[in-house]
Amino acid sequence: MIVKLDHIGIAVSNMEESLKLYTEILGMKLEGTETVEEQKVKVAFLPVGDTEVELLESTDAEGPVAKFIENKGQGIQHLAFRVDDIEAALAHCKERGLRLIDEKPRYGAGGAKIAFLHPKGTNGVLIELCQRD
Ligand code: ZN
To answer: Which strands sit side by side in the sheet containing 106-107, from one edge to the other?
Structure first.
């Protein structure tokens, strides 16, 4: 079901400052940025090997990333696992009693189909399932 670790989502309060850390100090390459209106978030993509770091900066004080930082501070917000069939993966998880945040996939950064599992059912980890065609 799960193919690979697609990306690690990191909530940051200042994208520009964080990018300095990841690019100038840690030497990673910024591949691009994108604003996902639906999630009220600006995303920066930094590939690393076969996966990538995605920095997430909220564009709205009421957005999920802003709420996350308010509650927990900056840091790792979610893990995204690549699946080859997201509808089947969601059905699989639901059948086994996992709580879903998204019953149906929606579109995330990079045009991927994404859906989140509720962290209450996954030992506190916000897991994103992600399908890229
Ligand atoms: Zn993600």
So the answer is: 32-36, 41-48, 51-58, 2-12, 75-83, 127-131, 113-117, 106-107
